[in-house]
Amino acid sequence: MKNDCRKSVFDPRVSMAENCGISLKSIVGKTEAIVRDRMGGQAAGHGMDHVLRVLASARAIQAEAGGDLEIIELAALLHDVGDAKLHDGVERSAEFAREILGSLGASDELIAHVAHIVDNISFRKTESAEPLSLEGQVVQDADRLDALGAIGIVRTIEYGAAFGQPFYSSYGDTKTDVGHFHEKLFKLKSLMNTDAGRRMAKDREAFKRSFLDQFLRECS
Q1: pTM (2 d.p.)
Q2: 194: part of which helix (H) or strand (E)?
Q3: Residue 85 and residue 122 in contact, taking contact as beta carbons nearer than 8 Å
Q4: For a disulfide at 137, which of 16, 50, 61, 193, Cβ 3.0-4.6 Å?
């Protein structure tokens, strides 16, 4: 391990951050700055605004469900930093999380925990994902909440517009955002891990269903 902070006594048994007197809160702040820089130009419902909403929801869930707050904050910030939809179908978030946290001197244990969360919370891996820690369950719930409610509707429309997918088709012969509601988004409430997540998801799903009912009435 390289002594980047030039301490006269450097303990190789602990992280660079601990050797240099860097707090986890500092690592969280620096991680947010890096993620802002990398994701500032992204849209389609997966930009920095999404990341910050997931961070806020994760903090709210953690206040009730518990878990290590700094691990939760780091995983929330990094969960979409290498999203497959924005990297030619290749999921790179865990890779980028390791790179970023390593550059900040985080311990191997912290890096492994955060990378494991980031690598196992997506809906795509529902069947193949490895079991999540409590911290991972909190972040997963927060991420899924952002696909529901009013925000979830807007994100779905943004994504569809960015990739040429119509919101609705009366012909039923093309992939649509409304179809995505039924194929994925209305399944999320039943997949929540925490009581807080389930409660929030119930309210947001009810709003989304109400919107869709009204939309389809106006289309008939």
Answers
A1: 0.85
A2: none
A3: no
A4: 193
